[in-house]
Amino acid sequence: MRTVTWVCVLIVGLAAGSLAAGEVRPPAVAGAFYEGASFALDAQVGRLLSAADQTSVTGRLVALVAPHAGYVFSGRCAASVYRLLTTGQVSRVIVLGPSHHVAFAGVSLPDVAVTAYRTPLGDVPLDVAVCSALRGKSGFTTVPGADVREHSIEVELPFLQHTLGKFNLVPLVCGRMDASTVAAVAEAVAGYVGTGTLIVASSDFTHYGPNYEFVPFETKVEANLKAWLADASGRVAALDTAGFDRHCRETQDTICGRDPIRTLMAALVRSGLPVHGQVMSTATSGDVAGDYKNSVSYAAIGFFQVDTPARGDAPAGNTNVMQTGGSMKTATNPTATNSFVLTEASQKQLLGIARESIETYLKTGKYKSFGPASGELAAPGAVFVTLTQKGELRGCIGTTEPRGPLFEAVAGLAVAAAVEDGRFAPLTLAELPRTRIEVSVLSPLRRVKSAADIREPTDGVVVRRGGRSGLFLPQVWEHFTTKDDFLDELCRQKAHLPARAWMDPDTELHVFTVFAFEEPPR
């Protein structure tokens, strides 16, 4: 834990003061919490997004909780929710972050003269109109210098820049907030939920150990820390405000962003939108350092708006990118229960799009545009793209719900399977000629009551419980002799649950079929 202590000392040692009028707020922790050079930071964020936990979700991401520690400790956890964002998905981000250096009451807006926040990836313009609208409202203030050294907002920005591209920022530094202040600020923020705005609560969870003057237990430290983390993050995801407050009160848990989290929860409830939360990932710095004497806990939580589609429409909202296990050897033919098929011409065209996309990206680092399509290629499609070499898996990434026209989904996911599957090194151009491509188009998910309703080898399966989930395509059945073994490994390997979690009544089982086709052997 010496690295953590050193970083904290470094930050405390930075010069204090307020920004001069008209200046862009410069980065305070570049080179300490994250890489200081633009090219290195872009690569660092890209690696973290590629290596992040791949958890299935339903709906459109409208809010999230993410950690703000150094990327070496919390970056992969944060990436598990930031990876759900795509370029242009939202135009505004409101970030609520706790104040670590300046004591004050209420929520501090930036100085009126400040126009942008800077990171090594560039400047993020402030949403001046929203900042102006919030000035004078109950609970808001402007504290000179409140954001000069503050890292809780800054650390979120490189992830947002990498995934969203251009957006406007509303940075809200949170000081002491009583119940009435939380309610007032939540009321003001609630009106922006679901309006092309992403709401972010920046927070780490338990700060444990002598360095933090918090040692509530001295035995079974790892187990107790993870139990506290599961309890607190689960209550936040469930929007269980009373339960979260009770956890904080009874344990005195050192959650630095508890007030930003409370404010986010209250804003989501006040918005009236159909929102559900999901824990995307949890971690502790002790996992990285291998020492729990001093450890900080982290959770990434997403909140998703689920729109009810009209009959026959594709599900609305964005979905995540998932990895699946197993090596694919044989294409799956359509079954009697899967009426979806693609013509041979469309199959050939999609495989060509996949290969051209990968080749273009490996040569230029840019995505190839294929222009408009018509007919079945333009229809929304949930897709997995699988790469193999001599029958062995080389990459596999996809979605469980449609996220755009079929041809666009195949183009993007082919590149993702080639360079973003964290289980493998990025594919090289030299490898591409001996790499075989398979495309699997998924039917909508259907929940089943028990494992008895799962058909082998026809059904792919998604298992979900407590914010964790995992997926196996139907092609994976060939690697198992029994249904129990298939489901045990799905829970253990993909959902990170106990092997027999699929037998628990609280575990959801969903099935789907695929229409899969692949290139000839290479």
What does this protein look like?
- With 522 residues, the chain is α+β, with helices and mostly antiparallel strands.
- It folds into 2 domains: 2-305, Protocatechuate 4,5-dioxygenase, Chain B, CATH 3.40.830.10; 322-518, Hypothetical protein ph0010, domain 1 (Glycoprotein, Type 4 Pilin), CATH 3.30.700.
- Helices cover 30% and strands 21% of the residues.
- The chain contains 13 helices and 20 strands.
- It has helices spanning 2-12, 38-51, 71-82, 128-134, 157-164, 179-190, 221-237, 241-251, 258-271, 285-289, 344-364, 406-419, 483-494; strands at 60-66, 92-98, 107-108, 116-119, 122-125, 140-141, 168-174, 197-202, 207-208, 275-284, 295-305, 322-323, 382-389, 392-398, 436-442, 446-448, 460-465, 468-472, 508-512, 514-518.
- The strands form 4 sheets. Strands 1, 2, 3, 6, 7, 8, 9, 10 and 11 form a 9-stranded mixed beta sheet that branches. Strands 12-14-13-15-20 form a 5-stranded antiparallel beta sheet, with helices on one face. Strands 16-19-17-18 form a 4-stranded antiparallel beta sheet, covered by helices on one side.
- The radius of gyration is 23 Å and the shape is globular.
- Mean pLDDT is 85; it is low at 1-21 and 308-339.
